[in-house]
Amino acid sequence: METTFRIFKQVPRLIFGAGSLRRIGELVPPKNEGDYYVYVIDDVLKNGVVEDSLSIDENDLVEWFPATRKEPSTIQVDELRDKVIKEKAGKMPLCIIGIGGGSTMDVGKALSVMLCNEGSSRVYQGWDLVANPGIFKIGVPSIAGSGAEASRTAVLMGADRKFGINSDHSMFNAIIMDSSLIKTVKKDQWFYSGMDCFIHCVESLEGTMINELARGYADKALELCKRVFMGNGDDDMLMTASYMGGVSIVNSEVGVCHALSYGLSIELEYRHGYANCIAFNVLDEYYGKHVASFREMLKRHDIQLSTNVCSNLDDSAMNRMIDMTLRMERPLTNALGENWKAILTRDKIRELYLKM
Ligand code: NAD
Ligand code: ZN
């Protein structure tokens, strides 16, 4: 049988293991006179093990990204690009290093792309719209789950939509998976970001775009997630799950939960992991047995989710959320097949939001 599967994508180089951030010198391109790197680092990591592990030169730029405040936006990325160009009088960095969660790593990726492509980052939200390769970039997750270290997208908030810059040029050239960095993550956030990985695996496995190779990654990642959240798995397992779940998604797609979750993030400003948890909890009819496992994990970790989260939204807010969901054509095709519009109607989407 002829296969229509795309070319399988993976980050070409990675270093794995607790303490491995100290080996970053083996991955960065060597500098000549006048060269500099840009570090984009989650500001919760200030004055910690991250700074101790890096040897930042005075010529380098360090941008502390306030990931705790909000998910990154196209405006922030455009401003950061302009700031780098201004400060260095147009000289490009040799390398960009993004250290943090999905939010901060995505800023690093988007900056890399936007230093080499004209206009606003808004223009590149979508699939394969980036013409020029970006600056060489390295990703370092400091919280596990998003799989952004493995993915070919940089997800950004726009005026009325949350959307990724999906492109081969959005992939890191190298990553470092150092589980010592995730030790400081607070329990609730650990759970929500970890569930993002669990949901990536479920959506990948239950979707129509899966093949045996991507299934291998998702199956293993799901098993590791369950060991971490239902057994006594360790941080290296969670880092591995996050990465493998990400690889699986790059080579398949997300599904109904992500399509609904983006609506919650734009209207209620819910963070990705949390929004996913709220949405997944009402998706029994699509992901039945996995939703049951999810509820077990909620219980085990004593996590309380808000209820009736959409009850105070007016019609126009609800319509914006439904519009956002309907824009997620690829995930919905993956989840429900080519005929998804007949299955996931506006009324059905509204009904699901009102259940959350
Ligand atoms: P995040 O980057 O949004 O961070 C969540 C919180 O954890 C923030 O407050 C952050 O400061 C904190 N944090 C990070 N590292 C920490 C540490 N070591 N100790 C203490 N606190 C720490 O979280 P995330 O779940 O990794 O990423 C979600 C974001 O990634 C969303 O913006 C989402 O849209 C995006 N995302 C991208 C992809 C992709 O493939 N590019 C995939 C999934 C999600
Ligand atoms: Zn996700």
Automatic annotation (TrEMBL):
Secreted in keyword set: no
Cell inner membrane is among the record's keywords: no
Domain of life according to the entry: Bacteria
Annotated CDD domains: Fe-ADH_KdnB-like
Listed Pfam families: ADH_Fe_C (PF25137), Fe-ADH (PF00465)
PANTHER family noted in UniProt: 3-DEOXY-ALPHA-D-MANNO-OCTULOSONATE 8-OXIDASE, ALCOHOL DEHYDROGENASE
Protein name (record): Iron-containing alcohol dehydrogenase
Source organism of the structure: Sediminibacterium roseum
